[in-house]
Design goal:
Elements: H1 2-13, H2 19-31, H3 35-96, H4 102-113
Helix pairs in contact: 3-4
């Protein structure tokens, strides 16, 4: 019985909250944002934009480096593997007196290497 009495007595001292009271207090808080809070939020947005731009620039540099790496690897492959085969084919064709363009010679070398 004493717990019922305590619960009843607590209800008397706690004011009833209504929906409109909660909504009004929330809207008042949002309208009364301090200048510092507004500046902080704008600063956060600007910082996010700056970081996104920096990230995009970094990714573009990374793509450029990867493309350059691929080009260098392809050129190295040409020099090391296809170049000697092209030279051998050119020597073989020159013995018979035949001539061929550089593109044709490269295609023959790739065909011979099964590339």
């Amino acid at each position: 019985m004493s717990t019922l009495f305590q619960a009843a007595s607590n209800r008397v001292f706690v004011p009833a909250l209504h929906r409109y009271t909660i909504v009004n207090s929330i809207s008042r808080r949002s309208m009364m944002m301090s200048f510092e809070e507004k500046v902080r939020l704008k600063g956060k947005v600007e910082e996010d934009r700056y970081l996104k731009v920096q990230e995009n620039q970094w990714l573009e540099k990374l793509r450029t480096l990867k493309a350059q790496e691929e080009k260098d690897r392809h050129q190295k492959h040409q020099d090391e593997v296809v170049g000697p085969v092209k030279k051998d084919l050119f020597d073989l064709l020159s013995k018979t007196g035949d001539t061929i363009s550089d593109e044709g010679l490269e295609n023959l070398a790739k065909f011979r290497l099964d590339l």
